[in-house]
Amino acid sequence: MSKSKIEHKRFEFAVEEIKASDDGKRATFTGAASAYGNKDLGGDIVAYGAFAKAVKAGKPVMVLADHTATVKNNIGFGFNLSEDAKALRTTTEINLEKEAGRDAYAMLKHAKEVGYKIGLSIGFSIDDYEWNDKTNTRTIKEATLWEYSVVIFPMNPKATVTSVKSLLESGKGDDVANLKRTIETHLRDDCGFSKSEAEGFVSAGWGVLGDQGKGEEDIISAIAGLAERISTT
Question: What is the Cα–Cα distance from 111 to 14, expressed in whole angstroms?
Answer without folding.
Answer: 9
